[in-house]
Write a structure and sequence with these properties.
Layout lengths: L8 H22 L3 H33 L6 H50 L2 H6 L2 H43 L1 H48 L1 H6 L3 H53 L6 H46 L25 E11 L2 E11 L4 E6 L5 H8 L7 E6 L2 E2 L5 H7 E4 L10 H6 L6 H10 L3 H6 L17 H14 L4 E5 L7 H14 L4 E5 L11 E6 L2 E6 L1 H6 L4 H12 L1
Parallel strand pairs: 3-8, 3-9, 6-7, 7-8
Antiparallel strand pairs: 1-2, 1-4, 4-5, 9-10
Helix pairs in contact: 1-9, 2-3, 2-5, 2-9, 3-5, 5-6, 5-9, 6-8, 6-9, 8-9, 13-15
Bound molecules: adenosine-5'-triphosphate.
Length: 604
């Protein structure tokens, strides 16, 4: 890997750490295929040896048969056959080993991708607050693909080329070590030429790569915002912008290819010629004015053959370095993501207590002196204490930013509480097995988030629930009738994001999804904010049917939704300002709830 002399010690340390991370990742992902690597190296050495043997046999043919005119056809046939056989066997062996290594690389990347995706699925919600979706997707797809590049470069090119290079130099040294030294002395020029080429082409290569991701980003943005784009008649302007980016990408690619055509190839060919000339000149000098000794013609033949075998692997190795650098960076990014922890909620519960082993008569939810901040020193919830009885229906209201969704996130264990505690059926949340917890708590989010799948799959959410349970949940959510009216009933595909359905219907599917898990606690996050009054009525009916059986905590902007709640909690700047039934809260003259309610009445 290239190291820049202007790098500070910290940068050098960071680069080394990056290398360690990248190669650690490579080693771990390839572990199950370790034995393949050992065999591949062994067979590549055999292949390199066979490749080196060819010119040696050629040398014998010249020295022992052609020059002395000792035309022993049997021996000549054997030697020629040997040359052919060695060449064919070497090519075949290398091909087999390279496909073995390709298989290893592909399987490792497949494992890695699954590992990364699985890891992302288990990361805590706090991670996703910082994460950028596009970058995460790129980590799972592009970066793991770049890791494959690392395997291919390290395993294929560098390993294979190094073995061929070492074998060829050894054969040269065996034939004539002084001549070998001349070839080796000229080798650094190959490195110099490739280094110069990379320096010259690097800006174009980097820019082309940036432009390629711009092209992807523009495409994704346009498709995502197609409705807005077409409504504003912006197609022509977007097409122009895209064409400009595309044109620049083309220009940069051409610049890169030009650097290759004008500098790299001619300079390397020139060096090849210089090497040949140097070897021939040395022969001439050594022989003095006498004719070349017969034994040396064979050596010359073998050397000429070997020169190409030295130059090509050297070019290959050097050319890989910039690519290698990028792959190392990508691999280190993947390794960094895999090191991302903090998934404490997914760790083993401290006591593995089950929520249903709770002390009898304890509240469904008990919040004690709860404090929370997303960012240090910016507290969002202050000393919150609240008991919610089994089977109660509790509404949470408050101004925007008062902390309603945050409270719900803590109840859902998306974030750990900073201070204080939350107990479910008398058991602290951290002590409840996470899977069991998720089974017992259902969520209806503000955005129903539908998959591009059937109605059945959307309610089931990969839990493998029986059909009857799915239908019962849909009935309870008042979604059954409209699902049955779709052309394939529960098997109807709902389109991306449930585009086939109206907002209210999507919300009813989300309610059915939550109910299908038969939760003991149901959390609703403004589940009625995007639906019409008629659907809201349906949701309310569904909720009232659940009353007493399921503990319901509902955040609501539209106060009519929670008017009938057993208790309404009014949050203000992260504190409980008021609590009581609708009627009781309306009695508080100038109270926050009363003001909110009257304001909504006026607006209606
Ligand atoms: N992921 C986050 N990272 C940092 N701060 C956040 C995050 N989510 C919310 N906040 C902040 O926490 C405070 C409470 O937000 P929260 O979403 O809980 O309010 P809310 O009462 O649900 O508001 P709304 O009714 O508008 O949804 C706000 O000041 C908000 O800026």
């Amino acid at each position: 890997m290239r190291s820049d002399p202007q790098q500070t010690p910290e940068e050098k340390r960071a680069q080394k750490a990056q290398m360690r991370r990248a190669f650690g990742l490579l080693r771990r992902a390839a572990k199950p295929d370790r034995h393949h690597l050992g065999w591949a190296v062994l067979w590549l050495i055999v292949a390199a040896a066979l490749e080196v043997i060819g010119p040696l046999l050629g040398k014998r043919l010249i020295d022992e048969h052609l020059l002395p005119r000792a035309l022993d056809w049997n021996a000549i046939g054997m030697l020629l056959g040997g040359v052919l056989l060695a060449g064919a066997a070497s090519t075949w062996l290398r091909y087999l080993q390279l496909s073995r290594l390709a298989g290893l690389a592909m399987r490792s990347v497949q494992r890695l991708r699954e590992q990364v995706y699985g890891h992302v699925l288990r990361l805590p919600m706090a991670f996703f607050d910082r994460a950028i979706t596009g970058q995460l997707v790129s980590r799972v797809t592009n970066d793991t693909e770049a890791v494959k590049g690392l395997y291919i470069q390290v395993l294929f090119v560098i390993l294979d080329s190094t073995i061929v290079l070492v074998g060829t130099i050894a054969a040269m040294a065996w034939l004539d070590w002084r001549l070998m030294l001349i070839v080796v002395a000229l080798m650094p020029f190959v490195l110099l030429i490739v280094w110069l080429y990379q320096r010259l082409s690097a800006p174009a290569v980097t820019r082309a790569r940036q432009l390629r991701s711009d092209i992807n980003a523009q495409m994704a943005e346009s498709i995502g915002g197609m409705t807005v784009l077409q409504a504003n008649n912006a197609q022509a302007r977007f097409a122009e912008r895209f064409a400009a980016t595309n044109q620049e990408h083309y220009t940069q690619r051409v610049a890169e290819i030009r650097a290759n055509a004008w500098l790299l190839r001619p300079a390397l060919d020139m060096l090849n010629v210089v090497l040949l000339a140097a070897v021939i000149y040395f022969f001439g000098m050594r022989g003095g004015s006498n004719a070349m000794s017969t034994a040396e013609v064979g050596v010359l033949y073998a050397f000429i053959n070997y020169i190409a075998r030295v130059i090509e692997p050297l070019i290959q190795i050097t050319m890989q370095f910039s690519q290698l650098q990028q792959s190392v960076v990508a691999s280190a990014r993947v390794a960094g993501l895999l090191d991302e922890t903090g998934a404490l909620e997914h760790g083993k519960p401290r006591h593995s207590a089950a929520a249903n082993e709770a002390p009898a008569g304890s509240p469904a939810i008990s919040i004690r002196h709860l404090d929370f901040a997303y960012i240090d020193d910016q507290r969002v919830l202050h000393d919150l204490s609240l008991d919610i009885a089994q089977g109660a229906f509790v509404g949470i209201v408050g101004h925007t930013g008062s902390g309603k969704s945050t409270l719900l996130s803590l109840l859902l264990r998306y974030y750990p509480a900073r201070h204080g505690s939350i107990l479910m059926n008398g058991v602290p949340l951290d002590d409840i097995d996470i899977e069991q917890f998720r089974n017992e708590v259902g969520l209806v989010p503000q955005d129903p988030f539908l998959l591009a799948a059937s109605a059945y799959e959307n309610i089931d959410m990969a839990r493998g629930l029986p059909r009857e349970r799915i239908e019962a949940a849909a009935r309870a959510a008042h979604a059954h009738d409209f699902i049955m009216a779709l052309e394939d009933g529960y098997d109807t595909l709902l389109g991306e994001g449930g585009s086939r359905l109206a907002s209210g219907q999507k919300q009813l599917i989300a309610i059915a999804r939550a109910l299908a898990g038969s939760p003991r606690i149901l959390l609703l996050d403004e589940a009625t904010s995007r639906i019409d009054s008629q659907t809201e009525q349906i949701v309310q009916e569904a909720m009232s049917e659940l009353r007493g059986r399921v503990t319901i905590v509902a955040i609501a902007h539209r106060l009519s939704t929670i008017r009938d709640a057993d208790r309404i909690v009014v949050l203000n700047h992260g504190r409980i300002e008021e609590t009581g039934s609708h009627d009781a809260l309306m009695q508080i003259e100038g109270g926050l709830y009363q003001r909110l309610y009257l304001l909504q009445q006026l607006a209606a």
